[in-house]
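Researcher: Sequence recovery benchmark, item below. Answer with residues only.
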């Protein structure tokens, strides 16, 4: 899809469809609206709005044939809602809705997008992300593929330079999100720990080190290795590094939970809960998506991306309830539940990240069902040991259109993790379970600023939401890229 800025008046451009955004009747003062309405003998103002009584509520739409009065055969009028409440994320959602609707249109290969406000870098970025993400589907394993005939999107603007900048960034962030969505949607037979390592090693301008089982054992990663020891798939500890050409302003580590399939181990999941456990590596998918475009974005930040990839399966070698594990930092963990495996792999990854002497650590994990219970599919949980870093990532998430809600980590959350025979158990009370998991992870970060993103409810959708179809969402990709490139 070729998305580009267009400075010509909308009636002077050639497109198969005009997308015209409307806030309310005040929009009629907009020059583009007036030009189109006048050319159509005021069919919008006198017929669509008055006779048909179309109300431009957010995401409402109306298709108006032009009957040869202008070069464009039809106009898709999109409601933008109240102007005072319109945000960049709503513009992204409108663009996703348009991209989805166009799938049902015949012979629409080009679109002109007109909104009744100035279009700079941020607006162009949101429109770009919306069109790319709205056209997404995962049809790799289907005989009949989706046919996207949309080839060109013209974004009308008076500030071409800024719009070009926004489009370029939007393309990178959207494609990184697609990268992560594809991986989350892949079956576990494809997205194995070895495959994730191969993908990491193929990324452009990234230095990648992959530690095998023996190397991880030498590093003292007893928690991570225990989770993967029941699988025929060998574990892979993946460390990717991006370094800017100039001296880095800071060093950060991003960690993605990489359980490529989660059976629950001996605390086995019921069949219905196991069906989508291919998505338990969505954190890893997000990290790989970020690293796939990081060199193109060229932030002046050194980024270390870490994935402790393995399967949580059952056989005679599987770790068992009651086992005592020793993490990389020497702390001991009594296994209270083998289905609380993600935090065990993250424990060693956090220790590894801190040894890199980074300034900040952010982990992304489909960690707890408790977070899904608390926040549903509407928001991810965010917590950590530094309120300022949490606030900065939340600010980036607002720009990215990804909601993160702050949850606490209190000393009382650690109380339920107490063990009679080890430093801690890997699970505690089911009440406040997301925060209890955060308290567990906190034991493996000593002094570095750290934020934990629990995306259990937002990484994979069972039904469409805000323009995203069922399946993987690529959550946290755009948020962390916005944060890294701010």
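Model:
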């Amino acid at each position: 899809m070729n998305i580009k800025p267009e400075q010509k008046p909308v009636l002077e451009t050639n497109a198969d469809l005009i997308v015209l955004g409307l806030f309310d009747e005040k929009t009629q003062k907009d020059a583009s609206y007036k030009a189109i309405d006048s050319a159509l003998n005021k069919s919008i103002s006198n017929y669509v709005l008055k006779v048909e009584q179309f109300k431009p509520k957010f995401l409402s739409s109306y298709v108006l044939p032009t009957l040869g009065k202008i070069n464009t055969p039809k106009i898709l009028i999109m409601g933008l809602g109240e102007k005072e409440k319109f945000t960049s994320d709503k513009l992204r959602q409108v663009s996703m809705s348009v991209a989805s609707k166009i799938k049902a249109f015949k012979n629409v290969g080009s679109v002109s997008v007109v909104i009744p406000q100035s279009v700079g870098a941020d607006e162009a970025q949101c429109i770009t992300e919306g069109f790319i993400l709205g056209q997404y589907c995962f049809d790799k394993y289907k005989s009949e593929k989706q046919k996207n005939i949309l080839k060109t999107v013209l974004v009308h603007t008076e500030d071409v330079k800024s719009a070009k900048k926004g489009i370029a960034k939007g393309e990178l962030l959207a494609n990184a999100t697609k990268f992560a969505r594809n991986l989350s949607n892949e079956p576990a037979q494809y997205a194995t720990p070895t495959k994730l390592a191969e993908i990491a090693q193929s990324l452009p301008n990234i230095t990648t080190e992959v530690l095998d089982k023996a190397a991880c054992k030498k590093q003292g990663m007893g928690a991570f290795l225990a989770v993967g020891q029941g699988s025929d798939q060998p574990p892979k500890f993946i460390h990717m590094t991006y370094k800017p050409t100039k001296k880095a302003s800071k060093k950060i580590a991003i960690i993605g939970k990489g359980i490529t399939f989660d059976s629950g181990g001996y605390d086995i999941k019921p069949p219905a809960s196991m069906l989508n456990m291919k998505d338990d590596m969505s954190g890893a998918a997000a990290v790989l998506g970020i690293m796939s475009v990081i060199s193109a974005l060229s932030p002046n930040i050194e980024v270390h991306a870490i994935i402790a990839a393995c399967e949580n399966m059952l056989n005679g070698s599987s770790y068992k309830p009651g086992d005592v594990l020793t993490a990389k930092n020497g702390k001991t963990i009594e296994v209270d539940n083998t289905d609380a495996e993600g935090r065990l792999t993250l424990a060693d990854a956090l220790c590894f990240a801190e040894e890199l002497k980074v300034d900040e650590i952010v982990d992304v994990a489909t960690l707890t069902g408790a977070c899904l219970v608390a926040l549903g599919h509407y928001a991810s949980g965010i917590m950590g040991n530094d309120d300022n870093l949490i606030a900065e990532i939340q600010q980036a998430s607002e720009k990215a259109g990804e909601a993160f809600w702050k949850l606490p980590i209190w000393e009382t959350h650690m109380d339920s993790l107490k063990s009679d025979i080890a430093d801690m158990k890997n699970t505690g009370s089911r009440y406040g379970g997301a925060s209890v998991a955060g308290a567990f992870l906190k034991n493996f970060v000593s002094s570095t600023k750290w934020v934990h993103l629990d995306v259990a409810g937002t990484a994979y959708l069972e039904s469409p939401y805000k323009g995203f179809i069922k399946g993987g969402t690529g959550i946290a990709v755009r948020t962390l890229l916005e944060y890294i490139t701010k």
